[in-house]
Amino acid sequence: MHPSRQPLALPPELLALGEFAFIDVETTGGNPLADRVTEIAVIRFHADGRQTRWQSLINPSVPIPPAIQTLTGISNAMVRDAPEFFAIREELCALLDGAVFVAHNARFDYGFIKNEFRRVQEQFSADLLCTVRLSRRLYPTERGHGLDALVSRHRLGHFERHRAMGDCEATAAFVQHASEEHSPANVAAAARALLRTPSLPPHLPPDALANIPDGPGVYLFFGVNDLPIYIGKAKHLRERIRSHFSSDHMTMNDARLSRELRRIEWRPTAGEFSALLLESELIKERMPLRNIALRRRERQGFLDLSDDERGLHLEWCAASEAKDVVPDRYGPFTDQAAAKRWLMAAAREHRLCDHQLGFSRPRHAGEPCFARQIGRCHGYCEDSESRDRYRQRLQIALASKRLPAWPFPGATIFEERDIEHDRVDLLAFDQWCSLAGGARLPFDGDVFRLLRQVIERSPEAFRPFA
Ligand SMILES: [Zn+2]
User: Fold this and answer.
1) Rounded distance, CA 464 to CA 412, Å?
2) Ligand 1 centre and the CA of 377: distance in Å?
3) Which of 114, 206, 223, 455 is 20 to 30 A distant from 264 in Cα terms?
């Protein structure tokens, strides 16, 4: 033990948030899905002031690359006779159980631990406290927040760096030091904000938020009866569900949900896409009381441009009615008012005609619109601009909102894969809409936007729907 270092301890203000398990892992590389753990160290701070220290080398069952051996000092020879993860899983699980998972760059260590558990067919999830984020929050003007930077900046002492216990001690020493420098209450407040500690809805059992998985999926909130009061989708189920009840961010709707909530269900999916589609499907089927998303979706629509005997005009088309493929379609807009706001801005920028856009109506044929009177309209209303010329300018003004043509010859299939959880969902689409049982569902702006991104990123992931 180095003489300049004081014994590790955390203030009670911090432990009031929960027991803290500081953890560090050494690995064979940087990818939690492919690389393996070679060493784990844990220091758990118990509520009663006790500390449990545990460390073990782990046999990764794969060779450690030479560069990593040099960095960590953990060689193939050292791990040859070490236990495999399987052999220590129960001990580790007991050590981490119910504690906040604290680590420097916590997503890294968490990803590795989760995957080691997954390889032995077990689920692991915990609340994360990342000390990189804690350092950024407490010392916003500092630039480096790596462990080396923290150790030297705060003179935390000497640690056996790049070995699990050394890094784990350094991380705990940083939190201890910050509590002395900033006051325990401030550090606890920062940690609470990062943890977003949820206040448990009053009618839920105490462990209701404990075992929610991390992956993408759809969640359902139930009140007193068997009808859901809310259905939502998430990229990270656990984080999203808990965020409904974290005191900092609770909205009116969340506060009401919290009071009414009696039971939570979730359905994991292979990805964000499947979650989005399953959410729409469940919302349509179950009609939850508090779903604003549904009402919002029902107001979406397009502006269709047509040029016929009634003249050149734009017409609102609700997304739910937008079944046919129309060549001159613009949007989607969140609602008719949003479409009008957008159009008014475009009209100013592109010097369009107020009468033609329907913002005003001529009292007699050929009466100039207001924009014309102030010299902004080019005179389509007075026939001083030709219909062809005006149509061209209008199409240019609307171009950024033009609904793109469906890029495939027909319906298409997309496989959404979740490698981590070994799950595949098959999704079918046509004309920017999802298909269910062969029928095209109403246009949904969320589906459209996500679909467009995914097609742009990996068009090869789509194949014809035979
Ligand atoms: Zn005009």
Assistant:
1) 4
2) 5
3) 114
Cα of 337 from ligand 1 centre, angstroms = 21
Query: 437 CA distance to ligand 1 centroid (A)?
Result: 48
SS3 for 348? helix
Distance CA(332)–CA(345), nearest Å, equals: 16
Number of C-beta neighbours around residue 389 at 10 A:
11
Please state, in angstroms and as integers, the Cα–Cα distance from residue 161 to each residue in 20, 308, 322, 356, following that order: 21, 76, 62, 72
- State in Å: Cα 375 to ligand 1 middle: 9
Q: How far, in Å, from the CA of 304 to the mean position of ligand 1?
A: 20
Q: How far is the CA of 371 from the centre of ligand 1 (A)?
A: 6
Cα(351) to ligand 1 centroid in Å equals 9
Residue 315 Cα to ligand 1 middle (Å): 18
* CA 30 to each of CA 107, 111, 113: distance values in angstroms, whole numbers, following the listed order: 12, 10, 13
- pLDDT above 70 (res 3): no
pTM: 0.56
| Distance from Cα 380 to the centre of ligand 1, integer Å | 5
- In tens, the pLDDT along 336-385 reads 999 999 999 999 999 999 999 999 999 988 899 999 999 999 999 999 99
List CB-based neighbours of ion ligand 1 within 5 Å.
353, 369, 372, 377, 381
What domains can be seen in the chain, in order of their start residue?
A: 12-195 (3.30.420.10), 217-298 (3.40.1440.10), 301-401 (no CATH), 412-464 (no CATH)
Residues 6+ apart with CB under 8 A from 445: 297, 300, 319, 332, 334
Burial class (CB in 10 A: 0-12, 13-18, 19+), 380: buried
